Amino acid sequence: TDQTAVLRDVRRGMIPAHIYNDSETFALEKERLFGRAWLFVAHESEIPAPGDYVVRRVLEDSFIVTRDESGEIRAHFNMCLHRGMQVCRAEMGNASHFRCPYHGWSYRNDGRIVGLPFHQDAYGGEAGFRRKGQRLLPAPNLATYNGMIFISLDPDAPPLEDFLGDFRFYLDYYTRQSPSGIELRGPQRWRIKANWKIGAENFAGDMYHTPQTHTSVVEIGLFREPKAEKRKDGATYWAGNGGGTTYKLPPGDLDERLRYVGYPQEMIDRMKAAWSPQQSQVIGRDGFMISAASLFPNLSLVHNWPRVADSEAVLPFISIRQWQPISENETEVLSWFAVDAEAPEEFKALSYKAYLMCFGSTGMFEQDDVENWVSLTNTAAGSMARRLLLNSRMGLLEDGVQVSPTLTPDEFAGPGTARTGYSEYNQRELLNRWADHLERPQPRAATVEVGTGH
Ligand code: FES
Ligand code: FE
After folding, report:
1. Which of 109, 144, 179 is the last residue of a domain?
2. Pocket residues: Cβ below 6 A from ligand 1
3. Can you give the residue ranges of the Rieske domain (predicted)?
């Protein structure tokens, strides 16, 4: 394939259909995108105590994300320095040390090697194998925001704050509803036979699919704002490396609007304390309630408020999910339930049910969405898809003029660019960043020699 032509087409909003199922494209994504970008691996609330750990992947690379004895958060490549066995085989737990099952080398949870059986007899001690200073390979970069732990495989990655940019403003709605932040439960994990980009694009800005794909959810009355015309009144925004969608709520002030989506007053009071005046304005003054979003490349966030059973009451929930690529046509979905750590226990329990009903592995939205994405991925594999440039220019006239004007700061208080109406601005933003990464080769990483002191 002529990759230059592919990237040029993507940049003008014309998407070569085969990029949703192409091994060559996936090889480039692995090297140039996932080998470089900041990627979410865990939240601090998943490893609250010293010794707590979770094992998470970045494509084929397994990492042990731990809180060490001094409370510091670390991520180590889960490969024994001896002959490369996976050191930690459990998915989560608490351990002061990890012992390799193959020959028994052991490591502290800060990665340092401590035990090397028969060091003297087998190696002649330090003269043969330098144990001192040896540790499991750390992730080249690690940083956190609101307790969200990100790593990058690129030692020269820009600071996480710069990467997130103004998207931090929006990330706060999901991850900082009180000064204590959120706690995560899960993740549920499952695999779908779909390309990873489809979900990320959908959550970033696809308000257009809701009335069609989710017709049944609308018909059974799960939502208070099901109508297509309501959805297009919402705004989509893009800031930094992420963007998302909002619902336009009926008139009211901040308290009324947060009550409208089901928050109890004590949580509302904490949100007001945790958010900046500008963050409160987006909801309170402008009436836009944060809904789904994506952070480039493969993290998505959801905030929604389905009806509870047959009552008129609604219940909000937050979910964080990752589209973890397995191959060009398979994705592992990691889906966490998130809730304000200070929320009342009863709220936490009900909110969890609302999450499961909508976006758990058997959630109603989940079922609707994935059927489309699997079919799309299958159809993208063949030779005909290589003749098709999909139009991803919704919201733009042919001469590049916007269909809906950009909202002014008086209409939308948040940073970045926001517009109302159906559009594919955010999908284009996401794929433009994808193109930026794919066109830059990633330099070969330095190697680390084990046991020699070099
Ligand atoms: Fe781990 Fe040998 S491979 S101790
Ligand atoms: Fe959907």
Report:
1. 144
2. 80, 82-83, 85, 100, 102-105
3. 38-151
In the three-class reduction of DSSP (H, G, I as helix; E, B as strand; rest coil), residue 278 is classed as helix
Query: Measured in angstroms, how far is the CA atom of residue 150 from the centroid of ligand 1?
Result: 28
408 and 338 in a single domain? The answer is: yes
Q: How far does Cα 390 stand from its chain's mean position?
A: 25
Residue 358 CA to ligand 2 center (angstroms) comes to 10
Q: Are residues 139 and 187 in the same domain?
A: no
We report the CATH number of the domain holding residue 110 as 2.102.10.10
Of residues 2 and 298, more confidence is placed in 298
Banded pLDDT at 229 (limits 50, 70, 90): low
- pLDDT of res. 232: 85
DSSP, residue by residue, 319-385? EEEEEEEEETTEEEEEEEEEEETTS-HHHHHHHHHHHHHHHSTT-HHHHHHHHHHHHHHHHTTSSGG
Q: Do 277 and 239 meet the contact criterion of CB atoms below 8 Å apart? A: no
Across the range 371-396, mean pLDDT stands at 97
